[in-house]
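Table S4 entry, Isoaspartyl peptidase.
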Amino acid sequence: MKNIAIALHGGAGTILPASMTPEKEKAYKAGLQHATDAGYAVLAAGGTSLDAVEQAVVSLENCPLFNAGKGAVFTKEGKHEMDAAIMCGQTLAAGAVAGVRGIKNPVTLARAVMERSEYVLLSGSGAEEFARNLELPFAPEAYFNDAYRYKQWQEIRDSENFQLDHSEEKKFGTVGAVALDASGNVAAATSTGGMTNKQFNRVGDTPIIGAGTYANNLTCAISCTGHGEYFLRAVVAYDISCLIEYKGLSLQEACQKVVLEKLVAFGGEGGLVAVDTSGNLALPFNSEGMYRASKAAGQETTVAIYK
């Protein structure tokens, strides 16, 4: 089989064995495995990296354990505002949506923006109108109302605080995937529900091309998860690509420099998944853990949570 590979993440942060029950750990790993299988099946059948990352992210959006799609957290107003992006490494085409409500699979809408509009980034009610025009699936408010997410929100809804996903622990709840297909093309996709109790239509790095999501056949594909404000300021995804393109660093070296040195230096916590056109994978993070999985041709799926 040709050189194909996929890697995905389901969020990063203070994820410790002590805070996880065996049942919950098993459920997270099953969710990651299912998404990896969905994406890899596309690649194994000769499909595109774009299709693979979309399918993997859709799988994670449909799983309430992850802060994207069905599992999206509550805003200050008790709503769900979701962001997503997708990018093609072959053409540098990209599509993204920010602050959308009621969209069942935001990553699919992001791809529609890329392929069926003249734009890169649509937001809010305009993006929702675009989705309705294309008859993309919406879901009722109840679909997104996960009991665990609601409990998280109830704990801080009357304060000005926001939380990076889960309860008293710090978890940066974003999902994403990168892939290399048999034709040598890379792609990246990312999706998130943002921060619990976020206000003022806050948008993080996920839908910003070059910050949370980037793909370029000259270098690599990247999908990030972490404290979005830092990833925006560091332009993390594009910075890694630039280190490869202009400095000749390997994928591992570039990821190490940005995630474990540059981000750490000014307080940015999180991680990312990356793949280059040789099929090399990198899944670095500077937090206590990151929900992650990967699979390359001829290898078993690797699923992990902790350091």
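DSSP finds nine helices and 13 strands in the chain.
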